[in-house]
Amino acid sequence: MDSQSSKIQRSAILIKCFMALVMLTLAINIYTTSVIDFGSVAGAIGILSMLRGFLCSPSLLSMPIKNCLGSENKISKESYLYFILALILIVVSGF
Prior knowledge:
It is a single chain. The chain is an all-alpha fold. It has one domain (2-93). It is 83% helix and 0% strand. The chain is built from 5 helices and no strands. It has helices at 2-33, 38-56, 58-62, 65-70, 77-93. The protein is flat.
């Protein structure tokens, strides 16, 4: 059980670093162009909400995807909502 909790902790730290990188990239883009592109903002928020969905279900962080779908570990309702929001925002950012 200790190895599983350490995997979850390492994955959570990595995901939080990716979230910070996405925000930093968006801020640099806005600063250099002096224009707020709402498509890129929607895409960034979509990526952030997808990553937040992974953080809401720690079981997703400790096992491979193919094992998550077939196991008794359920994905939380919050994760589903974050994933749906991410899908919608990423699709909107493409237009």
